[in-house]
Amino acid sequence: METLRLAVNETEYQESITTAAEILKNGGVVGVPTETVYGLAASAYDNNAIKKVFDAKGRPQDNPLIVHISDMEMLKDVAEDIPEIVYTLAENFWPGPLTMVLHRTEKIAESVSAGLLTVAVRMPSNTVALDVIKKSGLPLAAPSANVSGRPSPTSAYHVVNDLDGKIDAVLMGDDCDFGVESTVITLVGQTPILLRPGAVTYEQLLNFLPTLEIADAVLNELKSGDKAESPGMKYKHYAPKTTAFLVEGDNFADFVNKQENAVAVCFEEEANNIKIPKLIYGSVNDTLSLAHSIFAVLREVDKFGAERVFIHAPEKEGVGLAVYNRLIRAAAFKVINI
Ligand code: TXA
Ligand code: MG
Q1: How far is the CA of 92 from the CAs of 85, 167, 204, in angstroms?
Q2: Which of 29, 99, 234 maximizes ligand 1 atoms within 8 Å of its Cβ, making it the mutation to test the pocket?
């Protein structure tokens, strides 16, 4: 199939949003920019459309999708038995990069929830995303718009690279602001649990959810046989083809300078001291800058044709926890302490 590129400049904006909404209403799939990463959207009510999303990505069937809504009315179409805290969290963090797992309604296509009785919901803040949801009148199920296992797409070109010819259209928006996927919490159990860290931080959420726990799988590898609270946590993720290692400690430059046939992914502050091929992913003091660039940098690593890549780990605080969580997966949990 030919994948339409829909421009979102001023002159073509309305026409592109209308075209995207029509495709979605007719059961098609569209790449959509959000403030976190690009999503591959389909109607959350349409099992056939959702099947196309899983097929295009090569996504395991047991990994459920996040449903995107544009207003609080739509929340009632997708979730029920909604606890009061959801409204408080929505007031503080929506629209924005927070996803809440709630009890699902019957209206949601079963494949969205991959057989679970719950649904993950968020209201994105990106204008293009909000306008497509409003124009179509549909809650949109959208996983990240990458081939499963690859780094998530933070620019329209990443989506085209991964999915050209496999999806109906891509809204060619700007690069994503945050660059890591939303924070996912579940509110259906006895205690709230952080399933995936993101730009809404654990520290921020503690103000509203003092008993919030961090799921084991955020920082640790699931043992075979362990049950994943969030199915996505058990799959290999974000990996370049080059064998990746996450490196913790201060003397990163000294360490990588001794390595042969290797690439370094480093902070800008240490770049001048590194004598092997390197990619800079931001400032050590600005975890948002690290989040913004990490997936684009992971997509660049293979171009060097090196055997190994050593990535300097960020602090596990604030947004750094989200970056660390993605990197430890990209490195398949291979951590070196120096
Ligand atoms: O920022 C984001 O969340 C992006 C943009 C497009 O909104 N979407 C995204 O979707 O990252 P995806 O499919 O790549 O990740 C969804 C995560 C997976 O880890 C999945 O297992 C989890 O959310 N998830 C979805 N529904 C769930 C549910 N009902 N219960 C537990 N975890 C769920
Ligand atoms: Mg994903």
Answers
A1: 11, 34, 10
A2: 99
